[in-house]
Amino acid sequence: MCGISGVLSPHNCRQLVERMTAALVHRGPDDSGFALLATREGAPRGMFGHRRLSILDVSAAGHQPMVSRDGRFCLSYNGEIYNFRELREELRRTGVQFRSSGDTEIVLEGWAHWGSGLLPRLRGMFAFSLWDRDEQRCYLARDVFGIKPLYVHEDAGTVLFASEIRALLATERISRTLDPAALQTYLATGSIAEPLTIIEGIRALPAGTFIAVDCRRGSNLVAEPRRFDEPFTPTVRDTGSVAPGPRELRDILRDSVSRHLVSDVPIALFLSGGLDSSSVVAVASEVSATKLDTFTITFGEAEFSEAAPARLVAEKFRTCHHEIPLSGKELLASLPDAFSAMDQPSLDGLNTYSVSRAVRNAGIKVVLSGLGGDELFGGYPSFRRAALAARVWRFRRLAREALSRAPAIGRGAWLQRLKLLFDATTPARGAYSASRRLFDDSQTRSLVSAAAPVPSPPLIASNSDERLFSLLGQVSLLETAGYMRNTLLRDSDVFSMAHGLELRVPFVDREVARAAIGFPDSVKLKRGVSKPMLVDAMKDILPPSLMDRPKQGFTLPFEKWMRDELSSEIHATLVSASLGDVGLCDRAVAQVWSDFQNRRSGTTWSRPWALYTLKRWADHNDVALASSGSPVAAPASFAAMR
Asked: Which residue of 114, 261, 359, 604 could cross-link 118, Cys pair, CB 3.0 to 4.6 Å?
């Protein structure tokens, strides 16, 4: 796991790349490297920078950027390929001789052998840049789920890219201007929907795509992103295939976990006490040859703490268990460091920041998480809402008319959800919107100042044709392409890597996902049971009491802390300070805070916290909305990233 950066330009760009690479030192504290990119004749075309967190082949043989034997290809790579051993053997049979034992050289030699045909063969998480000296092209690619980030900026023929937005900003070549379209997606969902980013002119390379940058003309030409794979295949309903049974599902999960445990350094596991992380611990204990370390955050607030069930799982599987107590006062003290680590404003992620810090302080570089289980196995309310909506969908026109006449619709949370549900184009999209929407359109209009126009960017961009999937399969698509990709995966990456910790997600795996999506809807929901498919697969090895517990998300006690320890800090930001520089109306923001304090229906902790986070992040990074007449950074040229 690493941090990558680069500039494509015929001019001297070493200083820019050095600045970006220095800004990524937390992602790769073990080693650094640079590589000049040039033609066969030696004409400059750019430079790669790299920071390395040594996980596989920790020797100098794994140093990056890595150059192929013949000098044609140069690679700067961030990620882990979990089928690298099979690919190594396949390439070896073609005559390739390897100089290292890790997965980086597999990507390098695989591209030399298959070209872009390598990408759908890769099972894992990755973002990389690869220079082809003979073609004078640079290829940028990102894994199909979007586990690893990659951000791009283009201006006057110069292309800059990096693993984090803050690294791009460190070049001082990009205006720190807030993107109004990104602001709208943030207010709608609590995170910025890719390919947008919070900074105007910087775009995220879409998950599951690659681009080619043609450097032959001196002024670089960026091609449209090309999709190379889909995270899912259509369900059993459409293919006529047979869905795996519980035992087969566990075997598939065991295979994924086993691959995710491959490392040349020690590995630990997050253990929240819920079904997903407990399943990963259970399967890992079966396949690991060494005793596992598990880590759990605990709270003094008993209703939020999962210490007891986590302890039960740790005892059953005999892990070396660590409990990390966290209080509101401790969180308050850590906020400056957390906002320093945050790459884009986000409603979520501080839990990952806190537990990652404890794991890294214990001397561990790699950790496994249960992230992805809810999206694949129906653990969120959106799945049940979609099933209910589908039953009455033919009456949605009547429902919309009745809702339009309902009084005080902006104040009733359940009325807002119903409106979002029936205004959507499909039951799945309606259920997703009703579950994930932070502020609705009318609330957004009141929050956004006149200086910040409110465009209408898409909030969800799934990679697959939703019509090919069952109802609940569509919800999985939306949850993985929306909430998981734009919030959970992004936060997990940035907050773990802030501590030089590689976070791996065995559920977010191509084979696990395709197995989960293959189950018919009839077995995905069961009254009184959350994620019945996963329960059936794990019930004979996990403690029975774990199966009977109601679902409890891994979140901090914000509702209480924001009324106590964090109250003064948030009040000073949302009421005493001006928020016009981030495009928000002071009066409307103060009203949101007042509604929360007064426990007004529908205003949970998430709304004022999202506004607080936006302002604190913007102040920390000196980011503001462009004032009238101010220059705006040039956008990326390819249409899919506009």
From this structure: 114
Calpha distance 285→278 (Å, rounded): 10
pLDDT band at 450 (very low <50, low <70, confident <90, very high): low
Q: Residue 42: left (phi > 0), alpha (psi -120 to 50), or beta?
A: left
Phi-psi region for residue 587, left (φ > 0), alpha (ψ -120 to 50) or beta?
Answer: alpha
Going 576 to 580 to 582 to 583, the CA torsion angle's sign is positive
Rg of the chain (C-alpha set)? 24
φ and ψ of 321, to 5 deg: -95, 140
Pure H helices in 480-585? 490-497, 510-517, 532-538, 544-548, 558-561, 567-574
CA distance 149 to 491: 10
DSSP 283-330: HHHHH-SSPPEEEEEE-SSTTT--HHHHHHHHHHTT-EEEEEE--HHH
Q: Let me know: does 592 contact 608? Beta carbons within 8 Å.
A: yes
Sign for the CA dihedral angle at 462, 465, 466, 468 comes to: negative
Say what the alpha-carbon torsion angle 614, 619, 624, 627 is, to the nearest 10 degrees. Answer: 130
For residue 344, give the DSSP letter. S
Residue 640 DSSP one-character state: G
At 545-578, the pLDDT tens digits run 887 766 655 678 898 999 999 999 999 999 988 9
* Nearest residue to 507 via CA among 142, 322, 250, 241: 250
Alpha-carbon span 433 to 478, nearest angstrom: 10
Beta-bridge partners for 34: 49
* Number of C-beta neighbours around residue 593 at 10 A: 21
Name the band, by pLDDT with cuts 50, 70 and 90, for residue 631. very low
Question: Rounded to two decimals, what is the model's pTM?
Answer: 0.94
